[in-house]
Task: structure prediction
Amino acid sequence: MESLESSGKTVEEAIDLALQQLGLSIDDVEVTVLKKGKPGFLGLGAEEATVRVTPLQSTQQEEDEVAVLAKKTVEELLRLMKLEAEVEPISPLQASSPEAKSIALEIKGQDLGILIGRRGETLAALQYVVRLIVARHQKAKVPVAIDVEGYKQRRYHVLRDLALRLAQKVKTTGRSTTLEPMPADERRVIHLALSVNPDVTTQSIGDGEVRKVAILPRRR
Result:
């Protein structure tokens, strides 16, 4: 997959747009900032930010080795938490999430809600820790997606359906709408679900934990 150059009002927006087109997560790419851009004064003299996003490549053998390491890491963390559960590798197609690439794991067992947490916050933290541990061993960032009893699959289906319903509402009323704050991977679900919609467009707004997606009528 070749590099892609993208522009936006900010560097983050330019990166988001590139990731939408590539269907990848930030952990799957290398980002080079070509131009930081500037807001200008009262809209005058503003310049867009431009980035080059390059997908990371790895061999099948490397992926297999990292998958084994990731699985063992999750199993060890579960042992330390004294949770009885099984960790199974799943294919990216089974994972069916925008963040799931070659290394996707699912944790199966009874009463694992504690691993998911409110709106998946605990699961996101677990995935972050696993990525850090694996990256430290590999000396490189590695995309590892973790799910618990199909939680992410269900969540992504709900978000996709929500995006389509709200898009129809925006088309009918002609007024934009804004969703609740979401983590980056969930915002990406909304962006991807509406990326080819001829009637609306999406935009990430806000900063940090309060960053959210706005759905706006598409200008003709």
